[in-house]
Hints:
Layout: H1 2-9, E1 15-22, E2 25-32, E3 39-47, H2 51-62, E4 67-75, H3 81-87, E5 90-96, H4 102-107, E6 111-114, H5 117-128
Parallel strand pairs: 3-4, 4-5, 5-6
Antiparallel strand pairs: 1-2
EC number: 2.7.6.1
Protein name: ribose-phosphate diphosphokinase
Family: Belongs to the ribose-phosphate pyrophosphokinase family.
Amino acid sequence: xxxxxxxxxxxxxxxxxxxxxxxxxxxxxxxxxxxxxxxxxxxxxxxxxxxxxxxxxxxxxxxxxxxxxxxxxxxxxxxxxxxxxxxxxxxxxxxxxxxxxxxxxxxxxxxxxxxxxxxxxxxxxxxxxxxxxxxxxxxxxx
Length: 142
């Protein structure tokens, strides 16, 4: 996923390898690549309590990143998530609106959302009509 995004944006990439000893608990995080004097963008499918993603942001800043952003598909943001984000090094945490974020945004100004309703509607329409959904990966409707 990282190489695909980096290739489409024509940028270099680094990644954070995380090891878990058990579910929902990161044992170790290793940064692979150089982020010194660069803007870092963390990409993940979801964030719940945000312990992992905030830890990753700290690791990136410690490695010399100038700014850190997060882009997430699903922002669950339960428990201590909002206070963790507020206290973390993020410039912004951008999520889709698969989960309503208005209330959470009131308590955490770093959270921003992207409306994906048109993309989901087009995917449903294409599925219903037997058309290609993979077409949407390279042709995003506005």
